[in-house]
Amino acid sequence: MSKSAVEVHEIDTALVNALPPDSLFAVGGRVRDQVRGEIENFTPAQKDLDYVVCGVHEEDLRKCLQKLGPVNFVGASFSIFKVTIAEHTVDVALPRRERSTGIGHRDFEVVSGPEIPLSDDLARRDFRMNMMARSLPGDELVDPYGGRDDLAAHRIDILSAHAFEEDPLRMLRAAQFAARFEYDVSPNLRAAMEASAPMVTSVSGERVAEELAKLCRDAARPSNGLELLRETGVLREIWPELLEGVGVEQNEWHAYDVYRHTLATVDATPPGDLVLRLAALFHDVGKPRTKEGPHFYRHEHVGHDLVREMLGRVRFSNGIIDRVAHLVCQHMYSADPYLSDAGIRRFIRRIGPANLEHQFALRAADAAGSGLPKREDGNAQFERRVWAEVQRKPAFSVRDLAVDGTAVMEALKARGAADAHYRGDRRVGDALEWLFEQVTEAPERNERTSLLALLNDYLDAAEKARA
To answer: pLDDT tens digits for 47-81?
Structure first.
């Protein structure tokens, strides 16, 4: 055991005062991150406050916790209490021992109680670096399985060769930790992943999405985790479409095949933005299915459909799927710095003002991921023109027009083209779209009097066409 100069959290103090001496231990990611901070000289965020209480019976623990705030008992077989202290809800559990009786983290024999040693509770966790605890108070490190040594070696290792059989989600956790912490995995862990790779399909899509989101969003270089998944066969079980790009050569503007270019593009995007990172990961996923010599005609449209299928398969939210698919579909836009003003406005309309920053960032990452020196192009000049037009705030959608559907309906009624009870039909939308085109060509037309005059001309022409 070793000492730490970790600042004691106020909830730690409350629990220490309520529980018998020498019974309380902090566990989980908090302890791992504290030890990492000591080794790598950084201050971790105080989060994931999880505790184990040793040597105390379940009912006695409940009585102690009730003195601190509302208590809910969850998972009767696990003996976990959720207690709210100072508006923070934390998990306080009795130590437990688990034995797998099935496959895929579904069937377990669980025993919990004061007689279970803390070391048994730690041993059931996923990786050695997470099998540590700290005594409270005192902050003495309990490390029966060498977790600190793994952290010092920047290594992720398992205690049991059956770790991934017991919970296949751990394979994705290994990849996201490897990417986020920039750690290597042990040969034992790699071999176990290779043996268990097909079992990842037994994990719910939502849990898969959660771990992949951490990998893609939070790692400085997501390629580290993605390559681990590819090399061990896990990626083939989740997103085999990405592997279609392996060995698919590109034109002279790319130094890498499609797959390596994809990894380089993802790594070229800044961490923290899941939508941008996923768009980078999938921007060329349609290329292998559209290759004709050195060309990949309409690969962005094929990619759009693949994105919807692949992200939907692992239950990403509809909002994320929509935004990523749109960025992928539009990523081949022409950045013509000499485009007309109306053309610039049509581009903004097509991409959407809210998506411009992402779309331009994807283009920059795509260029950086080519593996070749930066070449002169019109992207920067084009982007300056786009942002200048955004600042002028012309109408970028029908909703920005100075007239609405009510005005169109009133105009139709006034000329006898609709009765007094008319509530609209396709003619209203068609008229507004036509007006929007006129405003796109000349933004100064977006004024009520001008638009009503244009609407009158449009309806006149429509009547003559029908006559």
So the answer is: 779 999 999 999 999 999 999 999 998 866 678 99
pTM of the model: 0.90
Q: Are 62 and 73 in contact, with CB atoms under 8 Å apart? A: yes
pLDDT per residue over 419-451, tens digit each?
A: 999 999 999 999 999 999 999 999 999 999 999
Kindly list the structural domains of the chain, giving each domain's residue range(s) and its CATH number in brackets, ordered by start.
Answer: 10-153 (3.30.460.10), 155-238 (1.10.110.30), 261-393 (no CATH), 398-466 (no CATH)
| Bridge partner list, 97 | 111
Between CA 156 and CA 170 the distance in angstroms is 12
SS3 percent helix, strand, coil of the chain, rounded to 5, is 55, 10, 35
CA distance 199 to 165: 7
Number of C-beta neighbours around residue 55 at 10 A: 16
Tokens 């921007």, residue located: 283
Query: Cis omega before residue 137 (within 30°)?
Result: yes
The string of DSSP codes covering 320-385 is: HHHHHHHHHHHTT----TT--HHHHHHHHHHH-GGGHHHHHHHHHHHHHTTSS-----SHHHHHHH
- CA–CA distance, 287 with 1 (Å, rounded to integer): 54
